[in-house]
Structure formats: structure tokens, C-alpha cells
Amino acid sequence: MTVTLREVTQEDLPIFFEHQMDAEATRMAAFPSRNRDAFMAHWARIMSNGSGILNTILADDTVAGNVVYWEAAGESNIGYWLGKTHWGKGIASAALAQFLIKIEARPVYAHVAKHNLASIRVLQKCGFQLVREDLWNGDDGEELVMELRSECCATAANH
Ligand SMILES: CC(C)(COP(=O)(O)OP(=O)(O)OC[C@H]1O[C@@H](n2cnc3c(N)ncnc32)[C@H](O)[C@@H]1OP(=O)(O)O)[C@@H](O)C(=O)NCCC(=O)NCCS
């Protein structure tokens, strides 16, 4: 299986919508699913504002998920989401490693729920390190803030 990235297209959005409807995924990410209107409005906004980088993750020719970059409050951030049928195959690690080669900004941050061990592992494999623990949405749970300062390690890219 080959993992590649390309720009997000309108045709990808219904697939991403289904990915973020999965209850196990929303528990992992500690991020609630959006209804279709809210989801499409969110993607319309981030696709039109031009400041982020939005990539679709392909596993061979199949849309497996997305990996995105955005700036908020002067910080560079990344995030990713895969459909459940694609978990556990090294796809997120390979995709993030490739994406980090495209993203020149350093440091770059990821906010991850403390219980999301798979995502924390993906970040660690790409060279992210813990910088602090915060409360999520005020007091809704705990998140780790992880930071990448240097170039991404090659190990995950070749996974
Ligand atoms: C988190 C997510 C991106 C992981 O994607 P993935 O393609 O399965 O990840 P990979 O296969 O590349 O790597 C997962 C790593 O975590 C490890 N892992 C998986 N579950 C684990 C667990 N419960 N405890 C510890 N490590 C775990 C795997 O063994 C693997 O590490 P390894 O390569 O050293 O063996 C995917 O599950 C997802 O999209 N979840 C829903 C959305 C989400 O949580 N997004 C991230 C928000 S910060």
C-alpha cells in the first residue's frame, strides 16, 4: 500500500463527513461530530480562506482521511483524521511525515486528547514532543500540547 497526499477536493468532503460521524473516532479525538450543514460550512470556510494547507490522504487510490495545517493565535497547528477502516496500518504516521516536509513553519503544534494514545504515538514518531498539558474546552478533559521544532524524522515517512 502506498500513502500519498494531494489537495482536498469537493468530492472528498462527503467521505470526510462520514469519517467524523464515527462515535469511536469522536471519543478518541474528544471532538464532537458536526451535522452535515455545519461540516460543509466549516470546510467551505477553510477551503476559501486560503491561509491553511488542506490535504487528502490516499491509501493507494482510496481516500483514507485528511491532514491539515492552520494558524491560530499566532501558532502553527496540524491535525488529521482517518476513516476507521484505515486505522492501524501506519497510514497516519506516513501521511503526517510527508505533510511535515511540506509545512515549513516551525515550531508547529498539535493538540491531542490525553487518552488518544494512537495519535500521541503518531506525533512522537514524527518527532513531536510534549510541551504542556491543558484543560480541554475549559474543563471538559485533558489535552496534551505537542510541538515539533526540527525537521520531521525520516522513520515515519518510510513506514
Ligand atoms: C489517531 C489516528 C489518526 C491514528 O491513525 P493510524 O493510521 O491508525 O495510525 P498509525 O497506524 O500510523 O500509528 C498508530 C500508532 O499508535 C499505536 N497505537 C494504536 N493504538 C494504541 C494504543 N491504544 N496505545 C498505544 N499505542 C497505540 C500503533 O501501534 C502505532 O504505533 P507503532 O507504529 O509504533 O506500532 C486515527 O485513529 C484517527 O483518525 N482517529 C480519529 C481521529 C483522531 O483521533 N485524530 C487525531 C486528533 S489529535
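^ coenzyme A complex. The longest strand covers residues 62-72. The domain at 3-157 is CATH 3.40.630.30 (Aminopeptidase).
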